[in-house]
Write a structure and sequence with these properties.
alpha+beta, 5 strands
Amino acid sequence: MGWSIGFDTKWQRDIGYGVPAVCDHPECSCDINRGLAYVCCGEEPCGGDGCGLFFCTTHLIWSERLETFACERCDREELPFVPKPDTDEWIQHKRTHPSWEAWRVENPKF
């Protein structure tokens, strides 16, 4: 099984290395994707023990406490940041690409 596209039920958004995104840190606009390399806490889908948000390499820090790369809030055991919305690029892809046609039929309000 690949991790190019999936769905995170906690944050109600698409995830995977095929999903273009912006770093979830509120002061950052770095382009990333929602793949395992950018997820908070240990390269596990939906973040494992972390918040499950996605951060650029500047905002994923080594956490001695968690023994993995994490966002600053998980490192300090604080509430997570507010996740950023899907990028316009991703929304346009889902609205127009033929591979999403069946999904659009099932989700007409998108």
